[in-house]
Structures are given as C-alpha cells and as structure tokens.
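LAB NOTEBOOK - FOLDING QUEUE
OPERATOR: T.R.
BATCH SIZE: 2
PURPOSE: Compare the predicted structure-token outputs for two unrelated chains run back to back under identical settings.
PRIORITY: normal
REVIEWER: second-year student, initials M.K.

ITEM 1
FIELD SEQUENCE / FIELD STRUCTURE:
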Amino acid sequence: MFTWKPIYSELARVLLAWCSRQGELIAILHLAKEQGVPVSALQDEDKKGKRFPLEVIDPFTFFAFFSRKTLDENRVKLLDLIKAKLTLTSALPTDFEGLPVMNPQKSWFFSYQKDRAAFNYYLTVTNPAFTQYNNDMYYASIALNQAIAECVGDGGG
C-alpha cells in the first residue's frame, strides 16, 4: 500500500531543476501518446482562438497527466516512461491508494495562453504558499490552489 510515494517524492524533487526544460517534459507526454498511453490534449490556445502545440507546463500539471482518471496500468506506463527519461531510481508503484484522481477535463493548473499572465515555472514551485508544506502532501494540496492562482492565472485550461 502507498507504493507510489517514493517515485512521486523523487519526481517532485527532480522537477525543480526542469524549469528551463519544459519542452522536454512536454516531449515525454507526446512520446507517451505515440506509444498508446492515453494523454489528453497537448494544445494551447491564443487570443484569436487558434490552437497550437503546448509550449509551457508547470510541475503540477505535469503530475496531473499521470493522476487523471484512467486505468492504473496507463498511469504506470506513463510513470515508467517518465522514470526512464528523467533517470529516476524509485520503483514503479503497484498501487495508487490514497491519491486523489484529477478530472481529465480540468487538470491544467494554468490557463490557455489567451487568458494567462506571463508564465513562470519557477514561481510555481517556489511560491511560499506551497513550499511551506512541501513535506505534507495533504496540506500542500490545500495550498496548491492559492499558489497557482498567485503564480500562473486562474487555474483553468
């Protein structure tokens, strides 16, 4: 039970160093989709309503891609790919007990380009509203809404 904790913790630490490598994180999601892992839209939208490939992503939205309502085997497949690409050492989980499941239709923690202020990955992960709880996932999730609202927009997308 709770076998997801080691890889989730390791990934959270590793993602701090990826603020300038968002394109690579998005590429991992594209690769997963190419390999048949269900991944929702990787499309942004500009002020004219034109769709274009996603160019930015924050760590919480990245986490949401494998925390969506889907089969556990799909979550493990995506985590396996992430583990390989980010050279994580933790074991893959055999369960996801106790983790909340994201609504796939509302799992971006930033708005479309047309509705968001300047995007800043670093502010998202260093905002005091979030980091003061970095060792307690429950309280961190409560603070998450505040941090996202302050850093990257209204949380839609």
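ITEM 2
FIELD SEQUENCE / FIELD STRUCTURE:
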Amino acid sequence: MAQDDDEDDARIRALERENAELRARCGALEAKASYLDVVNFFAATLLYAQTDLDDILWDVANNAVARLGLEDCVIYLVDEAGEYLVQRAAFGPKNPRGREILAPLRIPVGKGIVGAVAATGEVVMIADTRRDPRYICDDQPRLSELAVPISLQGRTIGVIDSEHSQLDFFTPTHLEILGILASMTASRVGRALLDERLHRAQQDLEQKIDERTRALQAAIARAERLLLNTLPRPIALRLQAGEERIAERFDAVTVLFADLVGFTPMSAGSPPEAVVELLGAVFTEFDALSDRFGLEKIKTIGDAYMVVGGVPTPRPDHLEAIADMALELLGAVARVNAALGTDLAVRVGLHSGPVVAGIIGTRKFAYDLWGDTVNTASRMESHGATGKIHVHESTYSALRGRYTFEPRGVIEVKGLGKMSTYFLTGRASHTPERSPSITE
C-alpha cells in the first residue's frame, strides 16, 4: 500500500509540474500573442495617412499607454538647432486631457536621462530611479524609467520616455516593444517632417513667386507710366499691343512752338539746380495747359516747347484749341515770374496743315512730327516777337471774327520766302468761351 501511495504522489507531482509548465507556456504564448497584437497595431499605423506631426505623436503616446499598461508616455523631439529636446506629446497622469501640455519641457541634449539618450542614441532602462543621479523629477518622483531613442537615418531626432511608480516595472518585452514603436514612429515622423519641409518649401516658393510677381507687376506699371509719360496714350497702347512700326499722315492739325526769351543768358549765370527748377516750373505750367485743352505735348528742346492739336486723335477744333492754349501761355509765364521773381518772356508761333507722325528709335522711343506745317510753325516762332503769338495769314483767315489779331505785314521768312503774318491778341468779345477740351 505504501508503495502505491508513493507512486500516486509521484504521478500527482509530475502532473502538477506538467500543468505548471503548460500554464507557463500558455502564459508565454498569451504574452507573445499580446505582444504581437501590440506590434501589429502599431505596424498598422504606418499605413495611416496622417501628415500632421502633432497628430502622429499624440496618437503614439496615447496608444502606448493604452496598450502597454504604462502609466505615462512622453515624446520629445530635438529642435532644429539640435540643442534641446522639446516635449511634443505627453499622455498620462501629468496630462490627463489629450493634446494639452500646459508647460512643455525643454531639456538640453545631454542633460538628465532623456538628454543622455538623445546625446548617445542608446536605450536607458532604470529599475530604481533613486539610484540614478541623472533622474529629473518634474512633478512627482517615479521609481522606474525607460527611455528609447527615435532614430532616423542614423541620427537621433527624439526620445520616447515612460516612467512608472513601481520599482523594476519595465521588462525586456517593454524594451523590445518600445524599440519597435520608436522605429515605427521614426518612419512616420520622417514622412511628416518631409511633408512639412515640402509644405514649407512650397509656401516659400509661392511667397517668392508672389513677391516676384508683385515686383514684376510694379516694374511693368512703372514701365507703362514711363511709356505713357513719353508717348501719347493711344500710341503707347498700340506699342504694348505689339505694333512695331507706327507712322501716319494727318491732314488737318495745328502745331505750336513756344520759346523762352532770355532764358539762355539767364541760365548761364545761375546754378544748375536753379536752371532746372525754373525750366521745370515753366514747363509744368505748359503741361497743365496742354492737358486742359486736350492737346498732345510732343517734346521740349532746351527752352523750347512743342505741342500739337489733332494728333494722334483727330479733332475738328484743333486750331481753336491751340489758339486758346497760346493765349494762356502768356499768362502762365507771368505767373512763374511772379512766383520765382524772374523776368522771363515767351515767343509763340503756330501753324495748321498736314503732317506725318510716328515713332522713331528702338531703345529710346520718341513720337515726332514732320512736314512743312512743322517747319512753318517753327519759323513763325523764330521770326516772331517777344510776348507775341505769331501766325500765318491762313491762320488769321480761319480764326477771323472769333479771335482778335494785329497785322504785322509782309516779312521775309527764312527758307519760305515772303509771307503775310499776324499776331494773335485774344478772343473776340462777342465769342463765348469754348469748352477747354473735347476729351475731358
């Protein structure tokens, strides 16, 4: 009987050992299955279409706590200068409310446990933090800690850190899983950083394109203003539209020349600035009159001013418009003399007839007029008298009755022979004042 009892006890002990081994194997298999579930879960996150860096980091921290039984999980990234670890996600008792860090930590690389991991790129697992002088307590002391580097292309870009209130809490399994998690996080962060850099590069490119577009538009606007200041608007628009050669004949226009008498000897004894200021003041007055009467300034040559009516846009009252401006020119010079204390006078000549007008030059454009009408108007000015408006008999005939004249008689005009000329003195008293410009 005793022998049978001993054999039964031996069989029971053998069964118990076998049972314990089976339970251990089951436990190991369950742990491995749980481990594989966690790894598979985080592997699946690699397929997520997340590109926002904060979304990725908070997702990792949250799921690490939930699936690994951790008390907390904090993720740091190294700043662009490579000097500090910056807290980007923290899930656990320190930050119970998701995606909110009240005071993000900045830890110098190389300082503390986390800083040491960032500096060396090596894992640190501490069973008892009380025995490690590198431990930094930021709120309440924890007894064990595991810090794993996040490495990308051989460079540590961050750290996953977890602390626990239980001594020797972290196991090799935790270390392995967090290592895999750090590797997966590095892959996701790498994609996000690349996307972030591409986004910044795109924004920078768009900003540069926008700046250059604005600069180009401003340059084009300046060029257009310069072109419009140099050429008549209709001619400038035709050039901008692609016309390369502009030359036209106008059958009925009036050309006026005005010369400042006494300006040359006056300018010889004056500083350059004073000369330019005086000439600028006179021609500004003349330009204002040209705009007022809807006429086209052609050019200035020294102290001479040339303007035309009926070019480049024909108008039936070109002669009357030029005659009105000529009368106003005398008053304009008087105003400049009163303002600047000068003693200038003007000599004016005008004439009507056909002209050829067009653009000359390829680098510096100029719009000019040619023909006998231009030559005669110039001769009327040069053979005129100070403070007078000198005109040909044909002009007198066209304006007689509406304007007043003083006959000068027959004079010899250089290159043109003998001509009967007159001085235009004003508008007839019974003639109502005309509208200054048909283009206004």
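REVIEWER COMMENT (ITEM 2): The domain at 243-427 is CATH 3.30.70.1230 (Alpha-Beta Plaits).
FOLLOW-UP: none requested
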